[in-house]
Write a structure and sequence with these properties.
Elements lengths: L1 H16 L3 H13 L7 H13 L3 H18 L2
Helix pairs in contact: 1-2, 2-3, 3-4
């Protein structure tokens, strides 16, 4: 399974390098969750933002989710 996840990330990473919005969003998911790459929320947000600029629905939803999580953590 882990090998499959590495292959999936490589596949999406290649697409992201070409600017594919769905691939950018998938790479964001890998960084957000720390699957086969080190967890990096800032990297995830950057990838989601690039994808959202291309109207990728999953990236737009991910940004909203992360924003809501951040706001709830800041509220005492």
């Amino acid at each position: 399974m882990k090998k499959d996840m590495h292959a999936a990330f490589e596949y999406y990473h290649q697409g992201a390098k070409l600017g594919n919005p769905a691939s950018l969003a998938k790479c964001g998911w890998f960084f957000e969750n720390g699957y086969v790459v080190d967890k990096d929320i800032d990297e995830a947000i950057g990838l989601y933002q690039l994808a959202a600029k291309k109207n990728e629905p999953s990236a737009i939803e991910a940004l909203k989710r992360l924003e809501n999580n951040q706001n709830s953590e800041e509220t005492p």
